[in-house]
Prior knowledge:
The structure holds two protein chains of two kinds. Chain A is mainly β. Chain A has strands at 4-6, 11-14, 19-25, 30-38, 45-51, 54-58, 61-66, 71-76, 85-93, 101-102, 106-111. Chain A has no helices and eleven strands. The termini of chain A are far apart. In chain B, the strands form two sheets. In chain B, strands 2, 4, 5, 6, 9, 10 and 11 form a seven-stranded mixed beta sheet that branches. In chain B, strands 1-3-8-7 form a four-stranded antiparallel beta sheet, with no helix packed on it.
Amino acid sequence: xxxxxxxxxxxxVPEGAIVSLNCTYSNxxxxxxxxxxxxxxxxxxxxxxxxxxxxxxxxRFTAQVDKSSKYISLxxxxxxxxxxxxxxxxxxxxxxxxxxxxxxxxxLTVNP
Amino acid sequence: xxxxxQSPTHLIKTRGQQVTLRCSxxxxxxxxxxxxxxxxQGPQFIFQYYREEENGRGNFPPRFSGLQFPxxxxxxxxxxxxxDDSALYLCASSFPGGYGYTFGSGTRLTVV
Lengths: 112, 112
């Protein structure tokens, strides 16, 4: 069983839709949770960063962490065609330095 | 200089050969990590370097090795290449334990 599970999609939505992306994990030691966006042929770009449980909002993006359920989410409001990319969740434990454990990634297409 | 730069962008090697990939860290970042991303998968942690020493390693064999130089640039060396080594190799730099991981655009390695 993978430490981090993420539905690979693909997910296709119309412009303006609310997008919900999710990951589950099995390692209760994970304390730091991140969402990365990766465009084709590019490296991952950090979108959101959350420590422990709770919500964090940044513009059209909201990240939620529920440690009791080992479940994290990323919501994108008013989705735009430029949001079309692969979204990766990533996590790390307190003592792991820079070692990130990634999900498989969800491929998102926002149609004009 | 800002951002993480990787070279070369693309590389084709023959099974059994050796390859060296290079990374220049973002200015001020003294920790570098390397990841392997197979097609359609999330990045997998290979190892991390801090102050020119390896201080964390993922589930990769010893034929994957690295170096970090005093200017925080880094190399990833892979010996005895196998077909399954074909992937996008990503370099990420950060402060130790920081969350500001900056990824390069990667080197796409194809082993034939």
